[in-house]
């Protein structure tokens, strides 16, 4: 289960609610909120939950650099470099 931060509108009181919810994905999180009588406005994965060990490192590396690294590593492995 992942932890999601959400912003929702409470239809009974008219207030905006900010909190967290545990769910498998964003769709499931939205279903849970609707069952609680909330209207979801924004749902995001909580990065501080520690769900991804390598996520904090990969967020710093650009996608272009990851692709370049993968191609170069593949070339080295195919060339027989141990």
Q: Low-confidence parts lasting 5 or more residues at pLDDT below 50? A: none
Structural class: alpha+beta
State the total count of DSSP E strands.
3
Order of adjacent strands in the largest pleated sheet: 2-1-3
Mean pLDDT: 86
Give the domain tally.
2
If you compute it from the alpha carbons, what radius of gyration comes out, rounded to the nearest whole angstrom? 20 Å
The SSE string, one letter per element, is: EEHEHH
Strand content: 25-35%
Helix content: 25-40%
Tell me, briefly, the overall form.
rod-shaped
Helix count? 3
Q: State the separation between the terminal residues, measured CA to CA.
A: 38 Å
Largest sheet: 3 strands, antiparallel
Describe this structure in words.
The chain is an alpha+beta fold and 82 residues long. The protein has two domains: 51 residues; 31 residues. The protein is 37% helix and 30% strand. It has three helices and three strands, in the order E-E-H-E-H-H. The longest helix has 16 residues. The mean pLDDT is 86.
